Amino acid sequence: MTFLKRRKTTKGTEEGPKQQENEQPKIKPLTGPVAVKHITFLVGGLMAIFLGLLTSVYVATLHENDLWFSTIQEVEREISFRTECGLYYSYYKQMLQAPTITQGLKELTYDNKTESRRTINLLKRMNIYQEVILSILYRILSLQRYLEPVYFYLYTVFGLQALYVISIYITSWLLSGTWMSGALAAIWYILNRIDTTRVEFTIPLRENWSLPFFALQIMAITYYLRPQLKSFQCWSFTLIMISTFLFCVTWQFNQFILLMQALVLFSLDCFDMVPPSKVTSLYFIHVVSLLLVWILQFNNSMLLGSLVLSFVLAALVVRHLQRNLKSGGFVLRILKLLLHLVVVFSLTILTNNTSKKILGLESDEHIFKFLKAKFGFGATRDFDAKLYLCEEAFGLLPYDTFQRLLHTLILPSYLLTLVITVIIAITVAVQNLRCSSYSSLCQTTSIKEEGRIMLRPDMAYNLIHNVLFGLLALSTMRMKYLWTSHMCVFASAAICSNQLWSLSLKAIRLYSPHWVRVIRFAVPILIFIYLYHEFWPKIMTELSELREFYDPDTVELMNWIKSKTSKNAVFAGSMQLLAGVKLCTGRTITNHPHYEDKKLRERTKQIYQIYSRSSPEEVYSILRLYGTDYILLEDSICYERRHSRGCRLRDLLDIANSHLVILGNV
């Protein structure tokens, strides 16, 4: 078991109008509102860069202070990359150790050390192009003399945190119109670090590579959906395309996140909150990005059989066939909308099931088994589904999360703005449904006018995005990182919004442009003062706490394996420990934590019979089937106390094998 113990003591040019002959050009200095606008933009931009870099330095410092990473042994550094993190980092290390880049790529595409007695294409199976590109850059740039490979990897991931924070900063700025909201979003992200990111202790995890690009994509979409957008429209569309592709290529769960985003766009389209042409364009980006990743991953069938592709296809086909969806009276439009929903979702399920049967796809079936069991659609004895159900990370969002969010004032700010914005959204949606495509009723409704001012398409997108990802986070704790960072954006943007305060003051008959300006900036300033007073001493205390990595048992195990066993030896054990064996020793392993393959899941269940009530002869035959030379047994599994009865690994195996029946809820 691992312990952390306290240490012992350019110049731009601007082309003006064409000058008449012999006329001296006149240089007009920037004055008045134009000068103020340029200065504000400069200050806001510099603040975004500063807070982004500050976040990177902050998490890097916490990582160093927690592990004393700069002084521990290489094997200890590698052991600190736990579970699947170690597996991913091992391929970066493998590429660097290869004689040439070509040889390294060949070893990845014909790998027989990650799963014994089975040759797999790692570039097809896993999202490890970031490790490949990083290792190639390290070689090409000749950084060996200046920077250790591990630090090049660490600094890249921590550097992406700067991109993450800058993206949420700009998104909030775009929504509110003031950079102050961006600063508040960034500060909230930093102060709520426990609930917004886990990058400092799970560095190679796929989400730490992909979520910064997802935040960048949301920023670009927010700009793209701005009303009456003319300048930089092509630029924003290109940025959406690039960021969506990078998000997809760096995380295996990209299809499920894009499905949620497609549902957001679908909802906005149904209620006329976003122009249909822009929705279609964003659908197009989803499809193209997934197809590009499908090509890069050697025709990975899991992408072609994804729900998001089936949903986008169904939504576009049904909308084309049901062209009169947005015409008629209120009741008729409600009926048409209900029919539209039924047809789209039915066609999605039909298309998805058909494509999976044609492709023979079973890689993601464990996810649907887990969801079915989680939401009460029948009990299950399935080992994989129960393995997820028994993990705290896949349970409901715990109560202490709300306590932490309440302490930083983000939760009350978020809930207040969410309620107000949802009311406006419902008003706008009802008014849109009452108006046919040719009716002028909406133009004469004052509530509708105010709703359009407050609920611009970009704000509507971020609202629905927050609601759907919030529901996802409430149901599954591990998904909270997709929600909490955007919560910072939405709450800060609303607090600094001119429209929100205008509507609020009008509702209580105290509206005045002067009061709107005062409150709009006074409230965030007061929040800044509170946050500084409450959290600055805590941050300083946190940064002064120095610990070090301490896991002598695992270090001894890895050193023994390297010195006492053959390089061709095969090891069996838990997924988590074997990932470390693969990284630290380079030995062949039987199974690993990258669970998105049916054959691997079956193999893991069989290997885990070493902890079940199966007979020794049966266990021995299984181990020999996979060429096992050594078994790694762990006391933490044999004498497990972390989980309750029925959720311990040995219980899950005995239930799946019908060796044990647990009555009651598990």
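Above is the first protein from milestone M3; the second protein from the same milestone is given next.
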Amino acid sequence: FSNTYRMIEQDDFDIHTRLHTIVRGEDEAAMVESVGLALVKLPDVLNRLKPDIMIVHGDRFDALALATSAALMNIRILHIEGGEVSGTIDDSIRHAITKLAHYHVCCTRSAEQHLIAMCEDHDRILLAGCPSYDKLLSAKNKDYMSVIRMWLGEDVKTRDYIVALQHPVTTDIKHSLKMFELTLDALISFNKRTLILFPNVDAGSKEMVRVMRKKGIEHHPNFRAVKHVPFDQFIQLVAHAGCMIGNSSCGVREVGAFGTPVINLGTRQTGRETGENVLHVRDADTQDKILHALQLQFGKQYPCSKIYGDGNAVPRILKFLKSINLKEPLQKKFCFPPVKDNISQDIDHILETQSALAVDLGGTNLRVAIVSMKGEIVKKYTQLNPKTYEDRLELILKMCVEAASEAVNVNCRILGVGISTGGRVNPREGIVLHSTKLIQEWSSVDLRTPISDALHLPVWVDNDGNCAALAERKFGHGKGIENFVTLITGTGIGGGIIHQHELIHGSSFCAAELGHIVVSLDGPECLCGSQGCIEAYASGIALQREAKKLHDEDLLLVEGMSMKKEEVVSAAHLIQAAKLGNSKADSILRTAGTALGLGVVNILHTMNPSLVILSGVLASHYVNAVKDVINQQALSSVKTVDVVVSNLADPALLGAASLVLDYTTRRIY
């Protein structure tokens, strides 16, 4: 409401010139008159200031007047937050400013691609992230209770109030008024303390204020109606709210940094990239739909999203500004199609690789790696996996923080954290439900919340077998294959199933426990308590068990083999003995390969995949045996299946990275 200058003064900036340009009226004509008034007044100001560069932010109609004046007066323009997509006249204004601007600072990879598609010069685009995130990510843990009480009352608790912020949609004022009225009805029915901000000065705002007064919002005991909240205090209010509702860009952009649930109403933000925390209500005929959305969202806590920034935008922008050569020609260059194949920047101040932090929780080791979008392991850290829950979680956080810090030095932008772990996992909640016996104190463990809170990054968790299948789908033999199965042959036997390009989890997250397919009713006992499972025959533990039996009977070692006295008998010794002609060792391996092959035949008859990928340290020893069993036992219609050995060096880490790199967070309601 024309008072933003007060915030600028509070930040100790000297204001050279003040222009009154807002024409009252809050309708379409008033917006046009405001732009015209600014265009009349700005030339004199710019002639006096003679700026080298004009920084223009966002997509408001007053910013269009600034950009137009600067362009016509041959002043270089740096536009911040261009390339984004929303659902109002702001889209047209934003893209118009883009065409006038000489340099561009954008917040997301999609926005960068939009700018390139709009024929802007690649070398003049900086993907920096949203500058407000620099402040957001450092502000959440300040004294927030005093702020909440000041605006909402002494008796309000965190996560037990709503922040509402709804503006008119200038291209459809009538519909936006209807949505606002339904929103207020739903909030009244929901009966929670609500801080509601007045709409902005766009066309239609007067009518929205009338709706508020008609419903008595300013005097309702559950509502606090205000025109403005200082930015620092607004951060604290939305960070600790039970929900934010409305159609402000703040809801789909900044609030994601805190994981606060958001209900985005109508079409004003259509096209914006959103985090997992945003639930969209595109249209509503009654208050019931909005009320149901409130019931679904209120009080939840989502992973923190960094779609719009990682807290380092300002240093990047400063570096970009310093790199601008004021002697180069002012005339804009447009890069008309075809665009470059590689849309990454070549200028050293913005060359960053989109990457994931991948965590692999094994029975012995805990590993964390920085993995690029192309599947390159940029840096890897390995520690022994602690035996207790507290020590393990502490080490995971320590290693992730160290890796995230190092990512800046190796020019990688971390998009999120993916975790691969043994056991049964609920990937929707990020919880390990039941662990394998190899990892102690690892049942009913919420991994997502503490790691997301510590790193301000979204976190995904899944079973190690599922992660191996995802790794194959993105980086390995499964790339482009609609239906395939991955089998991990290691300490245990696990796997993952890709059906119609999607990973299958099952109704209780127990799908693809392929190691526990029973191939013999009276076979050896498995760690799961059953008998005759594939894992009881073909896992590393099973082979080690059989090797120990042979060794105890002095039947393991043959000519060419030796063992130190303190050396532990392992599956590797059994394999070595078989290669050197030990018939008993060879028989055990053939039995194990047959058991695995029978399990694969069962999978073929159940899922009918076109590809079976054997992964893990034992895969190469089993592949021929599996093919033989398929030829002997499988139905003719599935005998043509391809059986291959994985060529991925580290499927667990690559699969964990795939959780992050392939994830789509937008939800529609």
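Note on the second protein: The first strand starts at residue 53 and ends at 57.
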